[in-house]
Amino acid sequence: MGMVRQWQEFSYESRYSHSYMDTIPEFVLLAEAYGHVGIRVEKPEELRPALEKAFALKDRTVFLDIITDRTENVYPMIEAGKGHHDMKLRVAPGTSTDRELA
After folding, report:
1. pTM of the shown model
2. Contact 55, 48 (CB under 8 A)
3. Taking the C-alpha atoms of 72, 73, 75 and 80 in order, what is their torsion angle to the nearest 10 degrees?
4. Pick from 87, 86, 84: which is nearest to 76 by CA?
């Protein structure tokens, strides 16, 4: 769903349509309903312990529900019809986006 919002932000002047995310299921409960392990990660400091627990459960299927900021974009990104040389990269403020992608 975040990618739909991102495309709308970059390509359609932030005219959002069909980015509804208010009824996303409780993935931890869904995983557990099927007999698997569900782990929800809500804070960055919870990530490492959750990954360690998941990797330790070698005989189980583990689903990690990692909550991220809804406005965070995914990079690198290549817009439809563009080439790799037109790739959008996330850069720190004040740095140049002019760099070789070879």
Report:
1. 0.63
2. no
3. 170
4. 87
